[in-house]
Amino acid sequence: MRCFLDIDGVLCDWTGTMHRRLGIAYDYANWPYAKGPDGWYWHNDLGWSFDAVSQLCDFEFWVNASETHDGREIMTIVRRYFELNEITLLTAPMPNVMSASGKIEWVRRHYPEFERRMMVCTASKAILAALPGSLLIDDGPCNIRDWTAAGGRAITVPRWWNTEHHLALKSASVVEKHLEKG
Questions:
Q1: pLDDT digits over 70-89, tens only?
Q2: pTM assigned to the model
Q3: Residues of the chain whose pLDDT is less than 70?
Q4: Cβ of 106: how many Cβ atoms within 10 Å?
Q5: What is the DSSP secondary structure assignment for residue 170, as one 8-state letter?
Q6: Separation between Cα atoms, residue 90 and residue 10, nearest integer Å
Q7: What are phi and psi of 172, to 5 degrees?
Q8: What domains are defined for the chain?
Q9: Cβ neighbours around 142 below 10 Å, total
Q10: CA-CA distance, 37 to 93, in Å (whole number)?
Q11: Nearest to residue 71, comparing CAs of 82, 79, 63?
Q12: Nearest Cα to 125, choosing from 112, 110, 109, 139?
């Protein structure tokens, strides 16, 4: 069995970090906010596009990014079910050229045992779904959809921005229940 564990939104609090970078109040327990014009969950009057947000995701953004409120708990649960050599952190960089190196440094600082057990993948994560016994744990609806369509097994980490939003405050226990089922 091989577990691919997403970083952004699962371990790294991209959303909270971006809110702080933009000077926007952020309270995970009181999400969701209204979607902005480009589908982002910003206050409607700010109008930040994906391209504009991507430019803010430089090396310093990632190095200073916080962990999600339950990321450590999720990692502890995953480690109960998988050996270290069965877990790969899998992440897609933002278009900002410094995004990938910033993410690598973030992992080095927060999860150093995974520094050499991570993949920064600009292609669809789903290219790895065909590996025998592959499991993706991710918060991104498109990643989950593409992974399962390619034949892999996936667990959606409940977050306010995905289909499991009603369980967003119980994400770690949801992941554990799925792993218990096998």
A1: 999 999 999 999 999 999 99
A2: 0.91
A3: 31-47
A4: 25
A5: G
A6: 11
A7: -60, -45
A8: 2-13+67-181 (3.40.50.1000)
A9: 12
A10: 23
A11: 79
A12: 139
